[in-house]
Amino acid sequence: MTMSSKAADYSSFWALGDLAVFKQMMKAFSPSLRYFACSIVGNEAEAEEVVADVFIKIWQQRAQVTPPDNVQYYLFKAVKNTALNYLKQNGRRQTHLAAWEVEVSHHHAQNPEDILINKEQLDHIQAAIQSLPPRCRQIFILVKEEGFSYEQAATLLDLSKATVNVQMTIALKKIWAALGPTLKYSYS
Prior knowledge:
mainly alpha; 188 residues; Arc Repressor Mutant, subunit A; Rna Polymerase Sigma Factor, Chain: A
């Protein structure tokens, strides 16, 4: 799901505490937020707990919080901070070498490009993304799958925009290198 498709109007939640809109927001963002939290805390169960804590806190403090301009960015930043606090409270340091135990399937509407890419190629692409170093993979997913700008990803991860740019270059080179034999075979 791209940033524009996620940027639904959640103002009635922030203004009125609309439970239905809150549930819609949770449903729309939870899979991506769990995936992101898992990249920080290192396992699915803790990631689920972190995301639940964020949504509980948002619900409890809805009347006191100013509605954010960018709900997606706000939620990712809240998950990042909650995950880091979770690690600190549990006597663990953040590790970017943690294995991601969860795969979140992003439901994309089919378009002509999706139809042309067969299942085997999608498996190769997913394997290439998963083989990236953890920080590089995290940046790639935020930018390419979640639709964050380089600047937003840099701010969210407390990195420079140049670092995000370098990591994206590395990610794309590694993915293309991994896919090279597959693409040559498929289209020759």
